[in-house]
Amino acid sequence: MRYDISLASTKETNASPRLRPKDGGRLLTVQQAADYLGTTASTLYSKVWRREIPFIKLGRSVRFDLADLDKLIEQSKVKPFELLEPSVQFRK
């Protein structure tokens, strides 16, 4: 699958480069979503089975919405210690 890098601006984020399927579609197959997230299709199937990742079921096919994958990426970010509140940091 070929991807184009396009600028997508949303209310949540500033304009940032994001991979989009060349056909302009919004939904990705399991393999496309795995490539987008930098993981394997097997890992995604496991996350679907455990309901750890949002997905769309079209008949027997599983698809992923780009917006949901972008939200998942943002929610999965780990903040560095200096950005955490003092009560959350490790005690000496």
Quick description:
This protein is of the alpha+beta class and 92 residues long. It contains 3 helices and 5 strands.
Search tags:
single chain, 92 residues, alpha+beta, three-stranded antiparallel beta sheet, two-stranded antiparallel ribbon, 3 helices, 30% helix, elongated
Provide a descriptive summary of the structure in words:
The chain is α+β, with helices and mostly antiparallel strands and 92 residues long. It has helices at 30-37, 41-49, 66-76, and strands at residues 3-8, 16-21, 27-28, 56-58, 61-65. It has one domain. β4 (56-58) and β5 form a beta hairpin. α1 (30-37) packs across α2 (41-49).
- Give the helix tally: 3
Strand content: 15-25%
Gyration radius from CA atoms, angstroms: 16 Å
Low-confidence blocks of residues: 5-17
Order of helices and strands: EEEHHEEH
Structural class: alpha+beta
Helix content: 25-40%
Strand order of the largest sheet: 3-5-4
**Termini separation (Å)?**
50 Å
The gross shape turns out to be elongated
Total strand segments: 5
Mean pLDDT across every amino acid position = 79
Topology at a glance:
Blueprint: E1 3-8, E2 16-21, E3 27-28, H1 30-37, H2 41-49, E4 56-58, E5 61-65, H3 66-76
Antiparallel strand pairs: 1-2, 3-5, 4-5
